[in-house]
Specification:
- The protein is an alpha+beta fold.
- It has one domain: Alpha-Beta Complex (Outer Surface Protein A, domain 3), CATH 3.90.930.1.
- Helices cover 17% and strands 56% of the residues.
- The chain contains 2 helices and 9 strands.
- The chain has helices at 2-15, 121-128; strands at residues 21-26, 32-39, 42-50, 56-63, 66-74, 80-87, 90-99, 102-110, 113-118.
- The N and C termini lie far apart (56 Å).
- Residues 4-12 have low confidence and may be disordered.
- It comes from Flavobacterium faecale.
- This is Membrane-binding protein.
């Protein structure tokens, strides 16, 4: 009985899973545009996007074709300009804005709507201690 139950649980979790595929998409000039994992026709796990000049544009996580967790955005020269949290394809959580490699501000979002902004570490700390 226990072996049969274990087998049923195992097959439910692992037996019906379709394998992921690694996908690559290209610009018309042949340069890589994006790459990442696809499962059942939907983007999953980690993806990378590139400018047509070949430098990284953005990277982050997908769950069922929707952005989630942290995403990093770059200029066309490859410099980080923003790190942003997503949930269900909407900005949700912190978004940290960079200029010339330095943090210039942080923003807080709730499902796509900005709820707060800080331009200094002391202002952020004061809000967190309230």
């Amino acid at each position: 009985m226990i072996k049969a139950l274990f087998f049923l649980v195992f097959m439910t979790i692992f037996g019906n899973s379709e394998p992921r595929e690694y996908a690559k998409n290209y610009y018309s000039n042949g340069t890589l545009q994006s790459e990442g994992w696809v499962l059942q026709g939907k983007k999953v796990d980690y993806w990378y996007y590139y400018y047509s000049n070949g430098t990284k544009k953005e990277e982050g996580h997908f769950v069922a074709n929707k952005k989630c967790k942290w995403w990093i955005f770059y200029t066309s020269e490859g410099v980080i300009i923003r790190k942003t949290e997503y949930l269900n394809d909407k900005v949700n959580g912190l978004s940290i804005v960079y200029k010339d490699g330095d943090v210039v501000k942080a923003e807080k979002y709730k499902m796509g709507t900005k709820t707060n902004e800080w331009t200094s570490l002391s202002a952020y700390r004061n809000d967190q201690n309230k």
